[in-house]
Amino acid sequence: MLTHPPLQIGLAGFGNVGAGVYKNLFKNRELLRERTGRDLQVRKIVVRDPSKVRDVPLPADLVSTDLDDLINDPEIEIVVELIGGTERAFELVKSALLQKKIVVTGNKALLAEHGRELFALAEQQKTPIYFEAAVAGGIPIIKTVQESLIGNHIESVTGIINGTCNYILTRMAEGGLGYEEALGEAKDLGYAEADPTLDINGWDAAHKAIILASLSYGCWLPADEIFVEGIEKVRRKDTQFADKLGYTVKLLAVIQLHTDSGAIEVRVQPSLISKDQILASVKGVYNAILVCGDVVGETLFYGSGAGQDPTSSSVISDLADAASRRGQLETGNGRTGFVPHGLYGRPMPVEDTISKYYLRVEADDRPGVLAQIATLLGKQEIGILSVIQPEDHDEEVAPIVLMLHYAPFGVVRDTIAKIGALDCIREEPVWMRVEG
Ligand SMILES: NC(=O)c1ccc[n+]([C@@H]2O[C@H](COP(=O)([O-])OP(=O)(O)OC[C@H]3O[C@@H](n4cnc5c(N)ncnc54)[C@H](OP(=O)(O)O)[C@@H]3O)[C@@H](O)[C@H]2O)c1
Questions:
Q1: Which of 8, 180, 387, 411 has an alpha carbon 20 to 30 Å from 121's alpha carbon atom?
Q2: Tally of structural domains, the chain
Q3: What is the value of pTM for the model shown?
């Protein structure tokens, strides 16, 4: 039996995710009604172009093209922002909070850029922002970090949180595809946007890492405090050499507290991980996040990091939460989204972070080349763990792959720049971290 009136929802955006939310709210309406005690009703939907042909039919009686209609309708309790982008979405979310309308969003770019301001406004207005869909699509990682692991100091979060990059790297390693070919395939299959820049340059993953790091360490982290590298320079050769050496290449988001110094490492980079590590088995468009807490130990979350149904599952979970918890804030309970609780740790400059490294150079095939490279590495006390040079290369230029010992990132970067400047080196060296 329903004890509360229907929850009236204003849906901004009826694209991939918005249409999924509408479709699945309808599909599981009874279930949600039983579980939340309220009927979750979409009252208005705003799109740019109502005449567009869509897989999920747009209910004509609910459509508008004016986002302010959601703000100005007093019956709407919740605004679901699924339009993407950071400008209009920011205005919409701000206006909704000012009207004390609950916000649900899947917009990681918006939160990474304006999270500090929006969460402060949410707290001031005692009106929550829910954002489960903003990180790793269908994987419930936000609630996990905020609620299930609340009694833990988070020691580290390591994630494969961009499905497009993971698909491209998997196809290069296992299908033998070149980078451009794998990217083209990802586009054809709808895994990559027509403009995949934010995916392949690492910033989509970085936006998610900013959110996870901020939740884990208690303070909203500015985007310029984190180090981001994409997968553009990774070549089929590198995925194949990594394979020979017992590794696989992944775009990894690494968030780690160094308890000795109190510093927090936050970075997104293509990295080699040993094939026997659990994250190495995460393939294709799937995402996975490994969270270590000081009480719980190691926990792993795996699933679809994007896509209509998985992402709408997260949005609907936020809607159900909002339906069940409505009113708690007025009584002093409940959470408005993210309240800074004092940074424990300070961001660590990437130059000081330490790991092993993979280095590939394309060099003249003549005696003495390896000695020149080894001399430059030796001067900086960077140890060489192993070297491979395949015999089946062309006559003049040969790839040389070196695995380097633990060293600070800044020292390795400067030394590799010097190696790249040697006369015998024909292309910009490719190098990546090896995560241990
Ligand atoms: N796609 C995923 O798998 C996924 C996963 C996790 C999070 N997200 C996030 O979810 C959000 C939505 O993603 P999406 O893939 O659903 O995007 P999308 O397919 O491009 O859909 C965007 C929707 O917003 C509407 N829209 C855009 N600007 C508008 C404006 N100024 N006024 C009115 N309507 C406007 C569009 O209208 P028209 O239809 O008329 O063009 C469209 O319906 C993004 O923030 C994204 O980062 C997406």
A1: 8
A2: 3
A3: 0.94
Q: In this predicted model, what pLDDT tens digit does every residue of 171-186 receive, in sequence order?
A: 999 999 999 999 999 9
Please, how many CA atoms are within 13 Å of residue 388, restricted to the half-sphere of its CB? 13
Cα maximum dimension of the chain: 83
Ligand 1 centroid, distance to 199 Cα (angstroms)? 16
In sequence order, the 6+-apart residues with CB closer than 8 A to the CB of 232 are 179, 200, 201
Residue 369's domain is classified under what CATH number?
3.30.70.260
Distance of CA 377 to the CA centre of its chain: 34
Any atom of ligand 1 within 6 Å of the Cβ of 157: no
Q: Ligand 1 centre from 130 Cα, in Å?
A: 17
Domain of residue 412 covers 351-435
Ligand 1 pocket, 145 CB below 6 A? no
- Is 4 touching ligand 1 by the criterion CB < 6 Å? no
Whether residues 92 and 206 fall in one domain = no
Q: How many angstroms is it from 16 CA to the middle of ligand 1? A: 7
Residue 228: φ, ψ to 5°: -130, 130
* Cα distance between residue 64 and residue 77, in whole Å: 17
**What CA–CA distance (Å, rounded) separates 122 from 126?**
6
Confidence of residue 265 (pLDDT cuts 50, 70, 90): very high
Alpha helices in 161-202 (DSSP H): 163-175, 179-188, 197-200
